[in-house]
Amino acid sequence: xxxxxxxxxxxxxxxxxxxxxxxxxxxxxxxxxxxxxxxxxxxxxxxxxxxxxxxxxxxxxxxxxxxxxxxxxxxxxxxxxxxxxxxxxxxxxxxxxxxxxxxxxxxxxxxxxxxxxxxxxxxxxxxxxxxxxxxxxxxxxxxxxxxxxxxxxxxxxxxxxxxxxxxxxxxxxxxxxxxxxxxxxxxxxxxxxxxxxxxxxxxxxxxxxxxxxxxxxxxxxxxxxxxxxxxxxxxxxxxxxxxxxxxxxxxxxxxxxxxxxxxxxxxxxxxxxxxxx
Length: 277
Prior knowledge:
Distance between the termini: 15 Å
Number of helices: 9
Mean pLDDT: 83
Shape: globular
Low-confidence stretches: 175-198
CATH architecture of the largest domain: Up-down Bundle
Strand order of the largest sheet: 1-2
Helix content: 55-70%
């Protein structure tokens, strides 16, 4: 995923211009007539109310990122020379971006209240959690990549929970309480322990998602080696490189190379995971 950030200009003529928000750059945004394709029904669902389905949500996010792409182009052009047309176009795409962002916020606002209601942090006020949840939702909207095929609700809920964890740790430092004293308890009985060691549970959840969906594009051999070296079943012992080599009919050193390659791919994906930033 390539996130593009536009550097704020120090030119006096652009002091009143808002700097474009970062956007996800995808090859689809460079396709011919993509603007007509994405905005064929504009304003369409951008001015509707209520929840959106996966297809509508995907289109809105693609529109939002196209707005960011367009605004970035216009902003750079304005640094060379500000014209009346540039001002009109910038205002037009800024308004579209704000409208889409507001629509996505309204459609997913329930996720914030849902996460606040399902989790319990003993040292946090509900109003504080609502505020933090809203900010986390906005950050998630600005960073979500619709081309990866995942549902925004999953991405946003993890981002909101991450915000709660961070806020709880900050509050704990101020009150000198142990981080382990507040475990968010979910209505469905699942327990996610908030550890002091970098939120291990959240990391493992994201790793499990990465492996299940094969986000890292692991080969069959790489998956085979990882599952044998690091079994997910409780009580199951990891197999040695030599044992796996005999099963796959390759050398012990070759198994080691496959393992290193697989771990490298996973590390790259996990490093890019914005929820773990």
